[in-house]
Amino acid sequence: MRIEKVLNNNVITVIDSDGNEQVVMGRGIAFKKHTGDLIDESRVEKVFSLASNEISQKLKTLLSDIPMEYVECSDEIITYAETVLGEKLHESVYISLTDHIHFAIDRHRQGLQIRNALLWEIKRMYRKEYAIGVKALQIIEETLGVSLPEDESAFIAMHLVNAQMNGEMRETISITNIVKDILNIVRRSFVIELNEDSLNYYRFMTHLKFFAQRVLLGTAAVGKESDNPLHDLVSKQYAEAYACVLKINDYTRKIYSRVLSKEELLYLTIHIERLVRSDQEPESSN
């Protein structure tokens, strides 16, 4: 590999055989090196081949400003997360998570603590990602010697959720709020506490996350729609659940200007009926 540009002693850019730019990281890889010099490939620790030029530029800026140990820590967390989640995260997470960890530690050292207003919701809605966030705090303490508060587990979880959805953090926060509001509508409609350990709750949460994303994107709204016999049957058979869904429809219409399709109303009704029935069954058996 020949150096295209030196960002600092630990980070360079190179041009691969296809003419694409790569960001290469390794301790001391560019020490006393210049453009055009060959590098010691045994020092290479990480190679970023980024599809997006915008992300590549942001990463180069970030890596040139942030100490190597923060990047290594973030990389360890991302590798662990991808193993647990069983999927590759969007490459933008290398920027967002590394920058967040650096900023969080800087705030912590200044005695500035930022509370996560969605901590409670994140712990329940994104359990796997939150658990990874808890593990991430252990990794940060072990590698960087800083013990961050619990709120940071939730912030890290949000970055992981965002990387899975390949969206903006603002969108991820909005999705979390929509799911929270809908759960509250269900709780108030049936005056119950939901069993968060049940399979039907898990299924409902999975449906809600994608549903909320569609609401934000506008794909849940329909202009003209043909009759749906199953919708009419379910709305009568599960009248209470359907009445709850109409409240959800009213919520999305008022807050997000989205009128739900009959198909969305149908699936929400079925999910809510299953959820509420499974929560009530143990009580009725006593």
Q: Could you explain how this protein is built, in words?
A:
By secondary structure, this protein is mainly alpha-helical. The protein folds into 3 domains: 5-53, Transcription Regulation, Sacy, Chain A, CATH 2.30.24.10; 68-166, PRD domain (PTS-regulatory domain, PRD, Orthogonal Bundle), CATH 1.10.1790; 170-280, Orthogonal Bundle (PTS-regulatory domain, PRD), CATH 1.10.1790.10. The chain has helices at 53-65, 68-85, 93-109, 119-125, 127-144, 151-165, 169-190, 199-217, 229-237, 239-256, 262-284, and strands at 5-8, 11-15, 21-25, 46-48. The chain has a 4-stranded antiparallel beta sheet, with helices on one face. A hairpin with a 2-residue loop joins strand 1 (5-8) and strand 2. The model is unreliable at 282-286 (pLDDT under 50).
Task: Give the tags.
mainly alpha; Transcription Regulation, Sacy, Chain A; PTS-regulatory domain, PRD; 4-stranded antiparallel beta sheet; 4 strands; disordered C terminus
